Write the structure tokens for this entry.
Amino acid sequence: MNFDLKGLVKLTYSSEDLHKATYSIIETANFLDAKGWTPATSSNFSVMLDNNYCAITVSGKHKGKLTPDDIMVVDLKGNPQDDKKPSAETLLHTSLYAWDNSLGCVLHTHSINSTILSLLINESFWQWQGYELLKAFSGISTHESVVKMPIFENTQDIGILAEEVINYLKTDIPCWGYLIRGHGVYTWGKDMASALRHLEAIEYLMECELKIMNIKGKL
């Protein structure tokens, strides 16, 4: 029987679960780095292991050069289960899992598209309609749907930001991700494949919007 470091919570994930999550994160990180969405040591990725713990990238590592030692386990309050240092934004992951236990993966990147678009939009959200690729979002079946993406102000107080995000999500407005102004994008899904699909769709839509702005002379 396995317990956490304090011997208080029975672990319901296995070493195989952690192994699979680790290599899934590394594979995805390499893919996203190749796209140029994770410059320097930015970005962080996580995968749920059970109802109490997730695997997440450690702080300060280049995401295109991750090794298994660069993945660690934290509980849903962000507490590390070893002596590794988690990302400063860990609570933005764990608060999502605590809010919705059907989520299996959270991805955060710092692409040029997300950084620029979030700075150009003065509103607290951006929305898309009419794009065929909207159907990449879970539950969307028509291009006529309106997909609204909230934009939160950047802050170093991650606890406050996490609370703002969850308060927005509690409004039950359909949401697959959000932007942090001048910072990047967060997205999630029931597993790595769906989270990655959502992220690629968001990136495509942001690039379309930026190109339209440029063509119309708004940039």
User: Anything to note?
Assistant: The mean pLDDT is 93. The chain has one domain: 15-215. DSSP finds five helices and eight strands in the chain. Residues 32 and 38 are 7 Å apart (CA to CA).
